[in-house]
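Subject: sequence -> structure tokens, single chain

Hey, anyone have a minute? Need the predicted structure for the following. Not urgent.
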Amino acid sequence: MHPLHHHVVKVNLKDIKPTQVSIGYLEVTKKRDEWKKLSKKKKIALLDEHWFPSILGPKKEYYIIDHHHLGMALHLEQQVEVNLTVLKDMSWLDKNTFWRVMEFHQWVHPFDERGQRVAFSEIPTNVSKLKDDPYRSLAGLARDEGAFAKDLTPFSEFLWADFFRTKIPKKKISNWDESLHLALQYAKGEEASYLPGWAGKVAG
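Reply:
Had a minute. Here:
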């Protein structure tokens, strides 16, 4: 009755809904720098190739389930429209049921920039309102340096961010060289072996 949809639609960026509360602003800055280096033709090509995967939710609103960093970068670069691919139509559900199904499928991450669980109603209504979690930036830096492997587990970088949050004081986080050095050390330890993409070695 409500089959899977894989069609692509062009939507105003301000009208798409996030499914997480925070992002790492450092990754946003990197994406903005990459965007600025592109010619107009390559920018158009990038937008044509990078579809935001989305779920059609209540009131026929689009909820993106990935590429939040790119969304914020494009917002800051004043890009108006983006392409979405609609993975599933759940517009006929009430809001409470919608969020329960979203969580069941791991399509939503209701945790704030401090790693604390929040109500679904506290998830920003626009990508421009996503908050900065510096530990998520650190997790991205650590991943790029080979601290852990890219993993298909949804929101895996947030799990790493929460791990680093317990190890590295916030006062040290603004010193990226120092905090990255610490993160790389902690990431290889057996204590991190429960995390997705762990690349350390088990003793013995």
